[in-house]
Amino acid sequence: MSQKRYIPFNKPPSINDSREFITKSLDSGQLAGRGPYTKKCEEWLAKKHPKIAGSLLTTSCTHALEVSAILMNLSGEDEVIVPSFTFVSSALAYHMHGANLRFCDIREDTLNINEDLLEEAITKNTKAIVVVHYAGVSCEMDIIMSIARKHKILVIEDNAHGFFGKYKGVNLGTIGDFSTLSFHATKNISCGEGGALLVNNKVFLERAETIIEKGTNRSNFIKGQIDKYSWIDKGSSYILSDLLAALLYGQFKNSNKIQLKRRSIWERYFVELSEWALSHKVSLPFIPEHCEQTYHMFYLLLSEKKERDNFISFLADHDIAATFHYLPLDKSEMGLRIALNDQVQCPVSKRISDCIVRLPIFYDLEAAEQTRIINTIKSYGLES
Ligand SMILES: Cc1ncc(COP(=O)(O)O)c(C=O)c1O
Fold first, then answer.
1. How far is the CA of 160 from the centre of ligand 1 (A)?
2. Does 358 have pLDDT greater than 90?
3. Residues 104, 82 contacting (CB under 8 angstroms)
4. Is pTM, for the whole model, over 0.85?
5. Residue from 15, 56, 10 nearest 249 by CA
6. Cα of 373 to ligand 1 centre, how many Å?
């Protein structure tokens, strides 16, 4: 392998089972949603999350979040609390479906929503808290759930990074009222674009089936419960094509292999960069003992933005794609326009956004490529 080969930031796994299932799906002609591969995927999700009432594949995590927003009947004064350091979808879905947003800052260590700031963000209008298990490391769910139950508000786990993660031995995505998964090409398990809604409270499950079926009771029709279907509720076209479900199912079946490989890459970065990080005042990810992470991301926290930007450029000059992450939502053009808490600053989100660098981590990353990444990082002339 040439030393000059460009190392991308991410590359979806190439899995033979997916090829086989896609061919079978094409041959079957059942390409629309809710077909045999969707059923297999949803059964697999149920097996992996034994506590849930049900799961529904969707076109994306964003759309799964939207379904949860519709299920909540948001209106007028309703408020949703969202971490400032997250992808736009965690906020957008609730804004689109009628909520006012309050942004909450994150913890310095796990980069998750700071549970100590929640009580002050809650008002009589708060309907829900969205939590994001950043990099697949759990938020402090015991505390968050007890605050939510005390105030009778819902919790949505935006689990885009946290598939296979655990909090105190409990699967992420099974703790809040709803949770969402992303199968976008950048995620550990992916089908290009895709997602899922996991419903933990069965009260919501039947309506969720209606919402993803464009507001119709088609799923009752398919189950033979009614002789024709019609428009009964809000909804949209949120159903994943069965062809993509076939691709996804191939990855589900190989998820142990994918996770093991990601774990070995993550651990190698951690071990081989620890000493360098210490002597260059760079922080590595922090994983609390009670959290089982998902090896979704390996990041470094540098001391300031200029240095972080130089570092990314340096790696790019060496044909290595490292990248920044979220721009804080409270500082975004839209966030500034619509947030309720315009006086509230989220300084930790801002600092992390300025200082974070994510390193390549993907199933097909070769050992020699990782050696090159690590050696290049160690050769960077940071002040110590
Ligand atoms: C935390 C979080 N939530 C939601 C999303 C949106 O996922 P999707 O692209 O599947 O809609 C992302 C995307 O990266 C994300 O990081």
1. 6
2. yes
3. yes
4. yes
5. 15
6. 26
